[in-house]
Amino acid sequence: MREVAEHVGIGGIGPVVVGTPEKVADDIEAWFDQTGVDGLNVPFAISPGDFEDIADMLVPELVRRGRYKDAYQPGTLREKFFGAGRARLTAPHPAVQYRPHMTAKAAE
After folding, report:
1. 21: exposed, middle or buried (C-beta count within 10 Å: 0-12, 13-18, 19+)?
2. Of 12, 15, 9, nearest in space to 43 by CA
3. DSSP class of residue 73?
4. What does each C-alpha distance from 47 to 10, 50, 51 come to in angstroms?
5. CA pair distance 69, 40, nearest whole angstrom
6. d(CA 5, CA 98)
7. CA distance linking residue 13 with residue 107, whole number of Å
8. Among 100, 25, 38, 98, CA closest to 64
9. What share of the chain is helix, strand, coil (3-state, %, to 5)?
């Protein structure tokens, strides 16, 4: 019972990692390398402090190690799915009719 309580007592049913940004990054890298996971859901114990600590200390360490993006590639999500030049829906997609019409002057 004690082991279960310790395991789920902070943030949920997943593994609990506590330590320096370097130690936490080491553990995350081990999960990635050993299990093939490609992302994490990070619960909190003390909000908003946990999220601030993650953003201020852990993320920079993961960026330094190449495990976290520090920028996105340019383009819209639609362009990433469907290719360059496809940022907006085109006819005959039914949703095109709901797009606000812009005058030629506003489009410039």
Report:
1. middle
2. 12
3. P
4. 12, 6, 7
5. 14
6. 52
7. 51
8. 25
9. 50, 0, 50
As a whole number of Å, the CA-based R_g of the chain is 22
pTM recorded for the entire structure: 0.61
Amino acid identity, residue 46?
Answer: I
Supply angle C-alpha 53, 56, 62, rounded to 5: 100
Interatomic CA distance for residues 108 and 100, integer angstroms: 15
| Sign of the torsion formed by the C-alpha atoms of 60, 64, 65 and 69 | positive
According to DSSP, residue 55 is labeled: I
CB-based contacts of 62, cutoff 8 Å, min separation 6: 25, 28, 68
Whether residue 102 contacts residue 91, with contact meaning beta carbons closer than 8 Å, is answered with: no
19-66 tens-digit pLDDT: 999 999 999 999 889 988 888 877 767 677 888 999 999 999 999 999
CA 84 to CA 61: how far, in whole Å? 32
